[in-house]
Design goal:
The chain is mainly beta. Helices cover 0% and strands 42% of the residues. The strands form 2 sheets. Strands 2, 4, 5, 7, 8 and 9 form a 6-stranded mixed β-sheet that branches. The chain is elongated and about 90 Å long.
Amino acid sequence: LEQQVEVDGSNNVTVSAGLALTAYRPEILVTTLATPVVVQAGRPMAITHTVRNAGPAPARPFVIRFFLSTGDRPDASDVLLGTRAIGGLGAGLSSTAATSVTVPANVASGTYRIIAVADAAGQQAELDETNDVTVSPPLSVAR
């Protein structure tokens, strides 16, 4: 725009030091996941868990899904046990609950894990979409 005549026009730009920017998004994590050590097929069990929003923005409603798995990573053979709907969670806040689910009666006896998937329906754009899975210690299913 050069509205002024200057002696030296090459020194009109200044650059600041680098800025650390964080997206204004929620970050939903299941921070604790506890189950009984032994459960009975066909009977209810409680999954005690805490979900935390570690991001700087509030989270809108989302769901957590709980799966019975023979491994420690989700796959197509896992059995959906139940869900917990959360109506929203403020930045930095946590919510603890016990969700009652029933292990199907036709599940074979053996060692399993519970896999909790936070924001399982992908309802939130989060800071990190790769850390939504939490796995319980092993539990035994008896018939």
